[in-house]
Amino acid sequence: MMMERPTCWILKICLFLWVSGLGSLEGQSFNPWANKEGREEMILIHEGQEAKAIKHYEDRLASDSDRQEALFGLTVAHARLGHADNSISFLDRALESGLPFERFLAGPRDLLQPLYTFDAFQKRKARWIPVLLHGPMVGGLTDRSARFWVRTSQSSRVEVLLRADGERFPKRPLITPEVWTKPSTDHTAVMEIHGLKPGQKYHYQVRMDGAIVSDGHAFMTFPRMHRPSDFTVAFGGGAAYTPEFERVFTTIKSRQPIAFIQLGDNIYVDQPEKPSIQRYGYYRRQSSAPYRSLVSNVNVASIWDDHDFGDDDCWYGGDPNQPRFKREVWKVFRENWNNHAYGLGQENPGCYHDFYIGDVHFILLDGRYYRTDPTNASGRSMLGQTQLDWLLKTLEHSKGTFKILASPVPFAKGVKPGSRDPWDGYPEERSRIFAHIQDHHIEGVLLMAADRHRSDLWKIEAEGGYPLYEFMSSRLTNIHVHPVMKGSLFGYNAKRSFGLLEFETTLKDPRATYRIVTIDDEEVYRHSVHLSELSF
Question: Residue 208 and residue 160: Cα distance in Å, rounded?
């Protein structure tokens, strides 16, 4: 047998360290899979360590001179050091590489403030044709209403004009009420319109300060509520910002889902006490052309997980006001999404909410805001009492043919052996939810989850009841991967992937079909479940 040369082993060790996130630069630890595009460098800038950030960015440029996020960061770092010529030079290189000028207007504005004082920047801004910085994003859809989210560069009057498919824009189109964007909400606004028709395709334009600034978008209203229908939703988590894999959102759009559900680890912030870094994470994704194209045409609903809400495997206790950063993280989250609801409002904040698509009921959980210490078996809770009561009541009164219970972390046992971060860390609360389903004979429940960097199907057997199938997918863009577990019916981690759930409730025996689809649009697995399998 031929022995491998020493250099091969060296390369393998380096690759292992890179993937494991154990490498370091100048003593600063970095995690490449979660920080492919300079999150840690932006944190250094935030903390006044611009020189270190510059060195790390330059190291990135050494292997790719057009790396846009490095060019952006160097613009910011040099501006904060007062190096006007260097800052503008990197700004121009970033623009030449294709980075939209809007990135420098979006921010984080507090970190970019020195750049705005340069005459050279103001001259470039004067040539900029005003457009939306981010959005539009379709969300909060029902069978008869729609909501549209945008972000502008300054306080502006914004409205949306709609027409039904097959019509030209009439002299009197459907128009949402006009809304002002304001600094207090990071120049974002949500416009809502009612009186639409179920299952109807609508085209729309965005008008800002009297001028059309965004056009060519279309969406489909949901099927008539509580009526049998056929449709598909896409879902997934694990979406660290990695430019070369942003194309997954183009693949998702090509499958024409009526909705896209993001189940957490959507941007990877891990900085609950730094709103600027949180916003930086959102701005990168919202400036991504593939993502922007998807969300302007497909309803998006989102919940968070640890890397969006706090840090890895976090729990901060059940008090809605402590630690104090909880409220601020919730505010930033609401500024960047377009959900049907965000918990139960100011008294009971969070990202949990529910909605119907036709006769399918989607119930999305918040597994972080109220989570307590999983090592304390006395009264430990992932959801908190208010959310748990809401969940049990919502399940009990659901009119859905299928009820989709979506969690940021998996319910199935053994998905992350030895860890208390999934529902394995909260077995009493999990058992109470499952018992409630059995005790009240709630039929048609299916589980959806993310967190593990792969796509899985699990089957949870229940004594005296029907089995619960859990559809899992959480490697939309991540480089880092988790191994497939033996306990799953199927697992896939070879490429980035997402989940599709196709519902056919018009059938005599309604059916839900789970598909695992790769970034390259390859269907690697499918499994169908009939309502008759989810009955007592």
Answer: 9
